[in-house]
Structures are given as structure tokens and as C-alpha cells.
Amino acid sequence: MTKFNSKYLKPFKNVYVIILLGFAIWMLFFDAHSLLFHHELNSEIKELEYQKEHYKKEMAKDNKAIKELSTEEGVERIARETYYMKKPNEDIFIIEYEDSIAKQKQDD
Known about the structure:
The protein has helices at 2-9, 15-30, 35-69, 72-83, 98-107. The radius of gyration is 34 Å and the shape is rod-shaped. By secondary structure, the protein is an all-alpha fold. 75% of the residues lie in helices and 0% in strands. It folds into 2 domains: 1-31, no CATH class; 32-87. The chain starts with a helix and ends with a helix. The chain crosses the membrane at residues 15-37. Pfam families: DivIC. Keywords: Coiled coil, Membrane, Transmembrane, Transmembrane helix. Residues 38-72 form a coiled coil.
């Protein structure tokens, strides 16, 4: 048993090896630039890149809506469909299907 202990523990009796091992442990786990900290930062970067792509898509949809609203026909269509506006001599009939009514109640 003593041969086993001395054979594997011999490198740890050297002061330089102990200092190097302590330094490596400190740098890997406890330092401000540790691997754990970098892992957290990398996951945060991935999340922010996902959000960036999401907002780019939202901006593209908004730009499309702005472009559509820049024409007179687009403004009129949105006003009629969304706000049920009408011209003075018109009648509006709103047709709702049973499945769309149930869906609206669930959304509210």
C-alpha cells in the first residue's frame, strides 16, 4: 500500500506542481474570467442573438405595414377591416362564423 501511495503522490510533493495545480483551479473556477463565467456569457450571447433575429423580423413586418399604410388604398382597407369605418352612404354587414366567435372569447 505504501508503494501505491508514494508512486501516485510523488508529483504532489513538488512545490511547483502544487502551485501550478492551485493556479489552474483558481483560473478555472474562481477567477473573474473563469470557464463558468464564460459559459454564462456565451449562453447570454445566444439569447441576445435570438432576440436580435426576432426583432429584425418584427421590424420587417412593421416596415411592410408602414409601406402599406403609405398609400390611400391601404389606409382605407385597414380602416374598414379593423375599425369598421364606412363612407357616408354605405351600410356595413359584419359576418362572424361560430368558430371565430368561440376563438375570440378564448383570446379575451
